[in-house]
Amino acid sequence: MAEQQKTIHLIITRQDGPDGTPYKQEFKIPYRPNMNIISCLMEIQRNPVTVDGKEVAPIVWEMNCLEEVCGACSMVINGKPRQSCTALVDKLEQPIRLEPMNTFPINRDLAVDRSRMFDALKRVKAWIPIDGTHDLGPGPRMPEVDRQWAYELSRCMTCGVCLEACPNVNDKSPFIGAFAISQVRLFNEHPTGKMNAEERLEGLMGEGGITDCGNSQNCVQSCPKGIPLTTSIASMNRATTVYSIKNFFRS
């Protein structure tokens, strides 16, 4: 009976639109064991009433897979950018403070526009092009030792947490972020992707590229997938330096 009387206290930063002014609202919802932040937001959506009894519009946020794969539900929880689907209430200090990631333009409430991440992937050509649409048969096989570390890099879900944690990503800097640098390493080491390696390095060497990294290492500490981002940055630093030297002597 005592457990049924427990509540969860949330303080949520809201914004009614891209040009709106941020404001905070407080909610208290019934406690249930094993709740995550998504289930809390769904409870508020079912009954959007603040602690002072005011009925408000439901909270806007994004979610999809609910198993830390899609990256859509990123937000700042108690001051730390992370995935809300794996943020368990029982492991969080109350009141739980939810804020949108400030690195990205805010659409509404906790939902942000991550377009800059997808634009960065286009810039560095983070894909393996194919020659036509016909079946070319199986590609070259990767050695198991290479496949293992490549798999770690491939787990990136474009969640934006590394950009939110990075002090070099802000409205005064066009830095593309550690995730894009790591994806260049992934595709440049792929047996087929190597043929476009120089194009990807060119994408890293322009304005906002790898030289804008301040090596704070916040990215690798905050990455929910534990991707070795700083290792990728070091590897691509060397690759771009070698490529620059080669270009110098070509000219």
TrEMBL record:
Domain annotation 4Fe-4S ferredoxin-type: ranges:
147-175
Its Gene Ontology biological processes? respiratory electron transport chain; tricarboxylic acid cycle
- Name the enzyme's class: oxidoreductase
Known EC number: 1.3.5.1
Entry's Pfam families? Fer2_3 (PF13085), Fer4_8 (PF13183)
Which InterPro entries does the UniProt record give? 2Fe-2S_ferredoxin-like_sf, 4Fe4S_Fe-S-bd, 4Fe4S_Fe_S_CS, Beta-grasp_dom_sf, Helical_ferredxn, SDH/FRD_Iron-Sulfur, Succ_DH/fum_Rdtase_Fe-S, Succ_DH/fum_Rdtase_N
- Which GO molecular-function terms appear in the entry? 2 iron, 2 sulfur cluster binding; 3 iron, 4 sulfur cluster binding; 4 iron, 4 sulfur cluster binding; electron transfer activity; metal ion binding; succinate dehydrogenase (quinone) activity
Alphabetically list the UniProt keywords. Answer: 2Fe-2S, 3Fe-4S, 4Fe-4S, Iron, Iron-sulfur, Metal-binding, Oxidoreductase, Tricarboxylic acid cycle
Query: Please, which domain of life does this record's source organism belong to?
Result: Bacteria
The cofactor(s) it depends on are: [3Fe-4S] cluster; [4Fe-4S] cluster; [2Fe-2S] cluster
What protein family is recorded?
Belongs to the succinate dehydrogenase/fumarate reductase iron-sulfur protein family.
Q: Which PANTHER family match?
A: SUCCINATE DEHYDROGENASE [UBIQUINONE] IRON-SULFUR SUBUNIT, MITOCHONDRIAL (PTHR11921:SF29), SUCCINATE DEHYDROGENASE IRON-SULFUR PROTEIN (PTHR11921)
Q: Which NCBIfam families match?
A: dhsB, PRK08640.1
Q: What is this protein called?
A: succinate dehydrogenase
Which species does the entry assign this protein to?
A: Aneurinibacillus migulanus
